[in-house]
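Fold Annotation — chain and its backbone

Fields — amino acid sequence, structure tokens

___
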Amino acid sequence: MAVKNPHFYFPFNFGAMPHELAGYGASMVAILPVPYDATTTYRPGARNGPAAIIDASRHLEFYDEETGRNFSGIGICTLDELEVVDDSEKMAGRVYDAVKTLLDDGKKVVMLGGEHSISSGSVRAHAELHPGLTVLHLDAHADMRDEFGGNRFNHGCVARRISELCPVVSVGVRSIAEEEAGHIKSSNGRIKLFSAREIHDNPGWVDEVVKSLGRNVYVTIDLDAFDISVMPSVGTPQPGGLHWYQVLSLMERLAAEKCVVGFDVTELMPIPGLHAPDFLAAKLVYKLIGYFFSRQ
């Protein structure tokens, strides 16, 4: 735990990092909170996700019990929340501008949502810097609609917009529209999908997913990829999802065999009085920072 004595100053940043580890200039990692929640189609509230993740992270241990390492020394800076606008296409552009600036400064970017629509802006900035980028997309939903509700930048279209930038490998999907299934089949391998059901029935799924990715990878995670038993705090829940160690097994292999250039965690919809999902999201972010960036 970052700070245990209630009389000590307990900063409101990711991990309650002390000043010497949280300053922008000395940090390798920049946490970008984006409290955007305009196109959610079931239960709104993802706008509160970034603050809930940061708050929960203040109670993390810096020492990671699985790897036996402390990742905080690389420096993790928490930025102010990105100002939102009530237009999803303009919001994706605003995210692109912010992420591009951070990448130009040499930062590794970790974006916290907010709804999933924001991820297309971050991917665009990373794809410009890393030609040949592929995207690993963890989600309960395919998110491959060309438009939804007359909006091509709806959160249900984010993977479709990303696939127009670079190849996409979707993992954990268990809700898909007929239109989306047809588009994936006609993509000539540019879009690959590993459903939650086939993952549960296939002990070799991690090998198959990792082999399907290129060298440079961006990871985008909608938290409804997790099963509702461990992650009920999402706006569009689906039964039959992934579990904690399944996701970590994939991420560990990814870190060992590929170069992850950035990632985001989206769609946490905090439920008052239910803190475990917030902490799961915070711990996931910290572990991924360690897996992906601490050896770079």
